[in-house]
Amino acid sequence: MFESLSDRLESAFKVISGSNKITELNVAESIKEIRRALVAADVNYKIAKEFTDKIKDKALGTENVLKNVNPGQLMVKIVMDELTELMGGQSVGINVKGHPGVILVAGLQGSGKTTFCGKLAKFLKEKRQLSPLLVACDVYRPAAIDQLGVLGESIKVPVYKEVENKNPVEIALNALKHAKGHGHHVVIVDTAGRLAVDEAMMAEVEAIKKAINPTESLFVVDSMTGQDAVNTAQAFNERINYDGVVLTKLDGDTRGGAALSIQYTVGKPIKFVSMGEKLDALDVFYPDRMAQRILGMGDIVSLVEKAQMEFDEEEAKRVEKKIKQNKFDFNDFLGQMQQIKKMGDLKGLLNMIPGMGKALKDVDIDDKALVRVEAIIQSMTPKERKDPDLLNLNRKKRIARGCGQTLEQINLFVKNFNDMRKFMHQMSNSNMGKMGMPGGMGLPKGGFGKPRR
Predict the structure, then answer these.
(1) Which homologous superfamily is 101-297 in?
(2) What is the dihedral of CA 430, 433, 436, 441, to 10 degrees?
């Protein structure tokens, strides 16, 4: 995500970082590179020019004021502030108040709209403790109703559907009556998409909005479509005047143009960003945090928030006690790993750590490594999981057959686990404190991943 933009901005900062002071000449050179970086990221040239003009004015305005400040660091700070402002300045929540609250979700076909509805339902259910109802109003796309049904079933959220009814306005109105009668706090209406903006599609979503009067209207856009996404967002806004934008597929090969241009062009905030197919891969959009990630500074605040959501204080105390007694076993290790998995995509998490994004740029992070470790531990008997010292050669051979790994991989995993356990025990009476997932987990096949060739 934004790798190319981040690299180009870093090059732009190098132009000025070697200077002793800010001058019109080095600012102009740096600004030219920043503008090129934005245009290459599919940001509209007019937006890129206005953006860089602001940076130039701010940088030259500090020329005679901040004489002792490193020019490179100052430029990074100015760019971060302006990026944050360009993307909306601050996070904007969604309105789910009402009896029930009603959220209308619109967008083109293939944008990830239906998947987002499932993610939003899970988000509202687990993080807001609300009772959502999903509504299938896409009566055209093959299997659209079935897809929403599968998503709802996987997160234990009911889906309202009328298979024989082909009138989406009637379906939406009937769903509202159903929600009121069954005590649902919020209704999420998944509308039909098209491969392109057309009059029939716009008229239909307008009619649904007028009929149900939603408390919140969201436009879902595929961030990989770049400037086209901005144009589509503008077309939808002119017709339904939505309240906010959802950017999907940010984990793909996105250049960043949509994220940087939509708020400026449409005047509507980005409210959520979605990465990956997992239903917990949905984040509230924070412009300042995204700006930090674009500039390679990581997003440690979001990482801590994710950890806190999965952190079990009682479990941490129990594990800490076992470590001090040198009784940390494979069951404990498996439990800690599963907490990590709940936090989301592994590479995405590591990229939130300052400096890690650049360090991992050419490394393939293998999420399947965690699955392999789980398979190894789950191939053990309950006694073996509880007492790692039981693992002799014959037991290891049996485990290898059970999980489809080689004996060498089992030996490596067990060795690294024992080394880790010994190290944690040594540290337990010093400065270890409350522990989450320990480092050096000894994953098979060379750890998290391998360098790209």
Answers:
(1) P-loop containing nucleotide triphosphate hydrolases (3.40.50.300)
(2) 0
